[in-house]
Amino acid sequence: MTAVPATKDAQGSSILLTFLQARTYVALLLVFGYFAIMAPNFLSLANTVIVAKHAALTAFLAIGMTFVIITGGIDLSVGSTVGLTAMVSGWLILHGIDPGLGWSIQFNTVEIALLVMCVGIFVGWINGILITKLNVAPFIATLGTLYIARGAALLSSGGRTFPNLAGNAEYGSDTFPLIGAGTFLGLPVLIWMLIVVGLIAAYIAKRTPLGRHIYAVGGNERGAALSGVKVDRVKLFVYMFSGFCAALVGLIIASQLQAAHPATGETFELNAIAAAVLGGTSLSGGRGKISGTIVGAFVISILADGLVMMGVSSFWQTVIKGLVIVAAVVIDQAQSKLQARVALQQEAATGR
Questions:
Q1: Range 9-15, long-range pairs (CB < 8 A, 24+ positions)
Q2: Comparing C-alpha atoms, which of 85, 78, 84, 293 is closest to residue 197?
Q3: For labelling alongside 304, which of 70, 105, 314, 326 has CA 20 to 30 A away?
């Protein structure tokens, strides 16, 4: 008598859980369909390229943020790291490095990119050391480096913009603008970069021991440590990888604009967190997918660009973005509770 309702309840819970797990793709279809109808010229080729570029920048940050959140942490410093690395790019192009001997060291585009990546990784390393060795809470540690990195960006130019970053053919840096504005096989270079970074991150997450360790640390840190996982090394890696992704964004923005401003990247961390959570990454750690995060980045970018095209006030855009973040967290909590419920129902069914 009671087995039939229980079975129906289990089936209903499983269907609802499947819907919640696919929420990112549902949200993508909804926002895309809405703006395709309501926003003029939304489906034009030029706007599609712009949206894709904006989504790629958010996706880079969100990919790094996904690894951090899966371990149960948070990285609030990524926006400031974007600004700092953009300024480093500008400094290297305009001034090089002056050792104080009456001459300076100049760099080509590849060398500039590598140095900028090193700066981002170093910021991530600082975050990782503060968290793993000094036992500072991730929120506080990365909040501190947020201010440090932003302050360093401001000090590098006295708060002024580094303009005219077209590079110098004599030093081999004249190809710098191609990083953000170049195309290859008809697609922007940064889209190809996103494909490469996304595939590498997905491979790490799904196919390597490091990926399994990242999920293990987020799922049960103490249990992971007892099973032999080097928890500190895993955390150090995810924060360094997040710093690398932020540096990549700083480099791309400086290349796109051919200018660098110390305020670049402000509030970018919010977009990254929103994209990761909307993509199914749990703020409690232990769950998340790179593919979902990338789709979440496209949802955030389509929403932002669509609202601009419809003439919605920037103030309302901020409110809507906040509502999206809150809704994503609420749905994530609902998914966690429903997963636990479905697991209990399955155990009960198996027991019978």
A1: 9/345, 10/342, 10/345, 10/346, 10/349, 13/338, 13/341, 13/342, 13/345, 14/342
A2: 293
A3: 70
Q: Which long-range contacts (CB under 8 A, 24 or more apart) does 176-180 make?
A: 176/89, 176/93, 176/109, 176/112, 176/255, 176/258, 177/255, 177/256, 177/258, 178/109, 178/255, 179/109, 179/113, 179/251, 179/252, 179/255, 180/251, 180/252, 180/253, 180/254, 180/255, 180/256, 180/257
User: Which tens digits make up the pLDDT trace of 203-212?
Assistant: 999 999 999 9
Q: Which residue has the tokens 């309702």?
A: 5
Percent of the chain with pLDDT over 90: 53
46-73 burial, b for 16+ CB within 10 Å, e for fewer? ebeeebbbbbbbbbbbbbbbbbbbbbbb
Q: Is the dihedral of CA 274, 70, 30, 323 positive or negative?
A: negative
| Cα–Cα nearest to 56, from 286, 242, 310, 249 | 249
The token duo for 134 is 């000094």
349 has a pLDDT exceeding 90: no
SS (H, E, C) 1-46: CCHHHHHHHHHHHHHHHHHHHCHHHHHHHHHHHHHHHHCCCCCCHH
pTM of the model as a whole: 0.89
d(CA 261, CA 253): 10
Q: Are 258 and 246 in contact (CB under 8 A)?
A: no
Q: Rounded to 10 degrees, what is the CA torsion of 232, 236, 237, 238? A: 100
Phi, psi (degrees; rounded to nearest 5) at 273: -65, -45
More confident residue, 6 or 136: 136
Residue type, 95: H
The answer to whether the CB of 331 falls within 8 A of the CB of 13 is no
- The answer for residues whose C-beta is within 8 angstroms of residue 338's C-beta and 6 or more apart is 13, 16, 17, 20
